[in-house]
Specification:
alpha+beta; D-amino Acid Aminotransferase, Chain A, domain 1; 9 helices; L-valine-2-oxoglutarate transaminase activity; BCAT-like_C; amino-acid biosynthesis; pyridoxal phosphate
């Protein structure tokens, strides 16, 4: 018990959460409008001082592995988020008429915490997730946390769950910030109250293929996004509609689905869970983000790394025929990382990539990992040390 209190005090001092008493206060919402109750904020009973959680670190996949704490912060009509707090990971209470449940007024983000060989813990560009959430919130008519509030909350969540950050090389702690219309609403309108919540899970490779090349299926019946829609932001509303095509493709043995633009039905956009790049000669190309494609943080980082290495990078329209004629193809995303594509199937035609060794993909990936692990100097300030 004493050990737990000491740890909790250290945790609080190492972040800007404020006073220890805040964490120990059980907080209840009495207002009827407060339809989504914050979990009771008490000193958690699950805390352990061990360096690592007792799990098999050699077999992490991308399944949910709940950790010790989550973070919650609420905002009512005045558009300001109040002081957030950590609490034990657990279920939340929502009104059946919450905006997020009825009208999908919600966004999510994904970012990761890593452990270096020297034991130091760090985040990768969490400010970019914060900015993307703000842009998405504006599109979905929601207030959003400031960049500072967002990054601070991610730091607190990572530190509180530090025993779930895998040993170096075994994976990472995937951190999932959510922003949702949690207040009750019946007629179609923005919700009267919002909840920002972060939970985390220890993860390894996203695809069951591990690091082996992916097989993608090009979908020509349904589309992921349309012009003027919300495909460019990370709203939860973009993900359920792809499940049908994704499930069908997975049942046929494919790793993921690649979507085409909904106007011409000939240009590639992105896959269900990641962005896509094509290499031809010394040129790296990726579909331009024009409102239908998500501005991935890994996408942006790979473009920066490639330009630094002297490659020509083009953001433009890419036809499916051009894709199939590429030398290399690879996918990028926070969950996915940088994943080489081994084959693409489109209208019963399958191509396998000539450069099965994926030299440019490997170079870009190892440069990015080098920056993350400290082997390569982080000249851009992408790494946020959270020790
Ligand atoms: C991420 O890369 O963080 C995502 O949100 C993709 C998701 C489908 C797992």
């Amino acid at each position: 018990m004493i050990q737990r209190s000491v740890h909790l005090r250290n945790l609080i001092q190492s972040s800007s959460i404020g006073s220890l008493s805040k964490l120990r206060t059980c907080k209840f919402f009495t207002s009827q409008a407060a339809a989504a109750s914050l979990p009771q904020v008490c000193e958690p009973s699950v805390y352990s001082d061990e360096e690592y959680a007792d799990i098999d670190w050699n077999n992490l996949g991308f399944g949910l592995m709940p950790t010790d704490y989550m973070y919650t912060m609420k905002c009512t009509q005045d558009d300001n988020f109040e002081q957030g707090q950590l609490s034990p990971y657990g279920n939340i209470e929502l009104s059946p008429s919450a905006g997020v449940l009825n009208y999908a007024q919600g966004l999510f983000e994904g970012t990761k915490a890593y452990r270096r060989e020297d034991g130091r813990l760090f985040l990768f560009r969490p400010d970019q997730n914060a900015i993307r959430m703000q842009i998405g919130a504006e599109r979905m008519c929601m207030p959003s946390p400031t960049v500072e509030q967002f990054v601070d909350a991610v730091k607190q969540t990572a530190l509180a769950n530090r025993r779930w950050i895998p040993p170096p090389g075994k994976g990472s702690l995937y951190i999932r910030p959510l922003l949702m219309g949690s207040g009750p609403i019946l007629g179609l309108a923005p919700a009267p109250e919002y909840t920002f919540l972060i939970y985390a899970s220890a993860v390894g490779n996203y695809f069951k293929e591990g690091l082996a090349p992916l097989s993608l299926y090009v979908e020509d019946e349904s589309h992921r996004a349309s012009r003027g829609g919300a495909g460019g932001v990370k709203t939860i509303a973009n993900y359920a509609p792809v499940l049908k095509a994704l499930t069908r493709a997975r049942n046929r043995g494919f790793s993921d689905v690649l979507y085409l633009d909904s106007v011409n039905k000939k240009n590639i956009e992105e896959a269900s869970s990641c962005n896509i790049f094509i290499v031809k000669g010394n040129v790296l190309s990726t579909p331009a983000t024009n409102g239908t494609i998500l501005e991935g943080v890994t996408r942006k980082s790979i473009i920066g790394v490639a330009r630094d290495l002297g490659y020509q990078v083009e953001e433009r329209s890419i036809s499916v025929e051009e894709l199939m004629d590429g030398d290399e193809v690879f996918c990028t995303g926070t969950a996915v990382g940088v994943a080489p594509v081994g084959s693409i199937t489109y209208q019963n035609k399958r191509v396998e990539y000539k450069m099965s060794a994926h030299p440019m993909c490997r170079e870009l990936y190892s440069t990015l990992v080098g920056i993350q692990t400290g082997l390569i100097e982080d000249k851009r300030g992408w790494i946020v040390d959270i020790n």
